[in-house]
Amino acid sequence: MTVRSGAPPRLSVVIPVYNEAPTLNELLSRTIAVLADLTPDYEVVVVDDGSEDATPDLLAKASTHNPRIRNVRLTRNFGQNAALNCGLFEATGDFVVTMDGDLQNPPEEIPKLLAAFAADVDLVSGLRTQRYEQVWRYWGSRAVHWLARLLVGRQLQDYGGQFKAYRREVIEATRQAWSPGKPFFALAVWLGFRVREVPVRHEKRRSGKTRYSLWALTRLNLEIMTSFSPAPLLAAWIAPVLCLAAGCAASVTAWWRGSALLWLGAAMAYGLGLVSLAVAWLASYIARLYRIAAGGAPGWVEMPARVTPPRFVSTGRLAREPATDDEHVAPTHS
Ligand code: UDP
Ligand code: MG
Questions:
Q1: Which residue has the higher pLDDT, 154 or 29?
Q2: What pLDDT was estimated at residue 42?
Q3: Is 322 a residue whose pLDDT tops 50?
Q4: Cα(328)–Cα(334) distance, rounded to whole angstroms?
Q5: Minimum-distance ligand 1 atom for the alpha carbon of 84
Q6: Residues in the 5 Å CB sphere of ion ligand 2
Q7: CA of 80 to the centre of ligand 1 (A)
Q8: Domain boundaries, the chain
Q9: By the 8 A CB rule, do 124 and 165 touch?
Q10: pLDDT in tens, 288-303
């Protein structure tokens, strides 16, 4: 990396892998070629998420051969998000790029992500302009995306995918607010960091198949629903309001008509109203605890200093595609 001013920043690339032996060597050699072209100070943190194929052996060999490849091995398969978070916590770079390990995110697109950093950009998100996945998966991820937009409250075009680049400050602040299961990228966006979306190539999976089943996607949806907003909890207030209103209406009508049956109905509505009131009251306390936990201590995040980040400039040893202009900067919280 050629840097215009100051000390060269350190660059980390984090890659979670699970049974990716067939393409692992190509992934590493292409990634390293790109990074070496950009900077002398880089590391590749590969998190082996409990692979059962030749991935651990290949990684051990690769990291012995090139100490810039850091090999983190998890005891079992914890899932892509856990492996990715582990890598993010391990990475030491001033700028950290995350990407998939199945070559669907071409490493040659990394410079495009890095070039998008500016004084008012804290994190850069790869926007998949063209996607290769089954129809059910496409619609499943549209649903996740819709939910994320609703609950995170920011109009990003693409919440999915893991081809992203973070500034160190973003990682540190997001880590404070993180708890197991929370999607790191969406959390950073929810905290208010400024995102720029940049179109990147997305390629077909070359070997094996996606690890995301319908069940895994459903779990991810549930995770998102409970990660960003206590609104679903506070919806518990709807029941007592409705029950007590129904109780009032039923008692007035019962008094007017002198109907014993309606008095019984009113009593039942009041009873249900009181029970659901107690539940809603409890939910409010839980929502309060949730808010304390969700923002992390102290509950707010300071805007990183508005310094112009160093530009990463290729030495030109590798051919690069021209950057596209149709970038999208997401608005901050509405
Ligand atoms: N992955 C992982 N642990 C898992 C599943 C996947 O580390 O339990 C890795 C996988 O090796 C790949 C990345 O996460 O590098 C994305 O996985 P996948 O291709 O299955 O997801 P998709 O591209 O379908 O979203
Ligand atoms: Mg994939």
A1: 29
A2: 96
A3: no
A4: 17
A5: 7
A6: 100, 102, 104
A7: 5
A8: 11-229+301-326, 231-294
A9: yes
A10: 888 777 666 666 788 8
Give the residue-averaged pLDDT of 134-160: 82
Contact 280, 239 (CB under 8 A): yes
Nearest-CA residue for ligand 1 atom 6 is 80
Burial class from Cβ neighbours inside 10 Å (0-12, 13-18, 19+) for residue 3 reads: middle
In the block, tokens 């880590």 appear at 175
* Span 103-114, pLDDT tens digits: 999 999 999 999
Ligand 1 lined by 161 (C-beta under 6 Å): no
The pLDDT tens digits for 222-280 are: 887 788 888 888 899 999 999 999 999 999 999 999 999 999 999 999 999 999 999 99
Residue 50 Ramachandran class (φ > 0 left, ψ -120 to 50 alpha, else beta): left
Residue 98 CB–ligand 1 contact under 6 Å: no
Residue range 3-25: average pLDDT?
86
Q: Nearest 5 degrees, angle CA 2-CA 93-CA 96?
A: 90
Among residues 119, 90, 116, 117, the alpha carbon closest in space to that of 15 is found at: 90
The radius of gyration of the chain's CA atoms, rounded to the nearest angstrom, is 25
CATH code: domain 11-229+301-326 is: 3.90.550.10
Q: How confident is the model at residue 307 (pLDDT cuts 50, 70, 90)?
A: low
Tokens of 195: 């995102």
Residue 2 has pLDDT above 60, yes or no: no
Ligand 1 close to Cβ of residue 20 (< 6 A): yes
Report d(CA 43, CA 115) in Å as an integer. Answer: 18
Alpha carbon distance 197, 113 (integer Å):
9
Per-residue pLDDT reduced to its tens digit, 74-127: 999 999 999 999 999 999 999 999 999 999 999 999 999 999 999 889 999 999
Q: What is the per-residue DSSP string for 118-172?
A: -TT-SEEEEEESS----HHHHHHHHHHHHHHHHHH----S---SS-EEEEHHHHH
